[in-house]
Amino acid sequence: MNAAWGAAIAFAVPLLLVLLLGRPVISLLKNVSAGQIVRKDGPVTHLSKQGTPTMGGLLIVIAATIGILLSSPVRQSWPVLFVLWGYSLLGFWDDAIIVLKHRALGLKARHKLFYQFLLAILAVLIAREHAFDGTLWPIFLSVLWILALVSTANAVNLTDGLDGLAAGTLVISFGAYAVIGYIIGAHAQSAQALALAGGCLGFLAFNRHPAAIFMGDTGSLGLGAALGMLGLMTGSPWLLIVVGMVFVIEALSVIFQVSFFRLTGGRRLFRMSPLHHHFELSGLPEACVVYLFWVAALMCGVLGIVMAG
Predict the structure, then answer these.
(1) Is the distance from CB of 95 to CB of 106 less than 8 angstroms?
(2) Which one of 45, 85, 114, 225 is most buried, counting C-beta atoms within 10 A?
(3) Per residue in 26-47, is it b (16+ CB within 10 Å) or e — as a string?
(4) Is the bond preceding residue 237 a cis peptide, omega within 30 degrees?
(5) Top-confidence residue, 40 or 68
(6) CB atoms within 10 A of CB 185
(7) Nearest residue to 31 via CA among 61, 53, 56, 50
(8) In terms of C-beta density within 10 A (0-12 exposed, 13-18 middle, 19 or more buried), how is residue 103 classed?
(9) Which helix (H) or strand (E) segment is 150 a member of?
(10) Whole-prediction pTM value?
(11) At what angle do helices 109-131 and 216-233 cross, to 10 degrees?
(12) Cα distance between residue 66 and residue 64, in whole Å
């Protein structure tokens, strides 16, 4: 397949599938009462989001999978698809508990982390076998990538707190990796990134403020892990930090908030974490916070591309 046609198919097919199926999926989720349960300790403005259909990330995952399979070799697609589906199904399990039991929290944190690390270990072994012809990696590098996959998945999950925030930032990050893959000659990974970007862009049409649907952990965990795997498959761990800097800062804001709270006996470093809630509670409208983070993500994506070149 011509590279240009492959890239066009990778991006356009998931985009069009999500745009075409978005409304029917929203109606279906409403009919089965798969609505968001809003945390009572969150911003008051978020109470209006109660009942908004969630688990919409599954639509992105399915559409992106089709785009990936149509545009890149299965052998080179398998590692990304493994983490995309593995983490998405874990997120679906978590979302299902929330919806069925009508509570704000699903799986216990230690259980989620256990399954995430298990999936990450398997993913690194798969990537070694399928992308690097069985080359034996040093233990340190393997551990580094296991941590990177788990961290990226959770960082994207933490970022998914405002309408369109995670979806829009992922479009930019995947778009950056599509360019990086092209620059370094990793054309299969470039096509995979385009498919994921197309799916997220289509979803953004329904997820932008005011959101008609949320991706839930079903989407954020799987897409975050896929972003981490693209970093692994392109051999660019430091570029992953640069391209995904918005996600990194969001995760660090939670770590710093919890640490500061414990060290100072109850004082807070931010009004609320993750960081997007701090800006929201400081008086910025939700849409403005989202646009601000998108701009930051775009700058980080461009910087990553420049570094790759």
Answers:
(1) yes
(2) 225
(3) beebeeeebbbbbeeebbeebe
(4) no
(5) 68
(6) 9
(7) 53
(8) exposed
(9) helix 139-159
(10) 0.93
(11) 30
(12) 5
CB–CB of 177/27 below 8 Å?
A: no
Contact 14/63 with Cβ under 8 angstroms?
A: yes
Residue 56: name the closest of 105, 19, 111, 11 by CA: 19
The DSSP code for 80 is H
Q: Contact 278/286 with Cβ under 8 angstroms?
A: no
Amino acid at 215: M
- Write the pLDDT tens digit of every residue in 147-199: 999 999 999 999 998 999 999 999 999 999 999 999 998 899 999 999 999 99
Residue 109 in this model has a pLDDT that exceeds 80: yes
C-alpha distance across the termini of the chain, in Å:
25
Residues 76-95, buried b or exposed e (16+ Cβ, 10 A)? Answer: bbebbbbbbbbbbbbbbbbb
C-alpha 163: how far from chain center: 14
Amino acid letter, residue 42: G
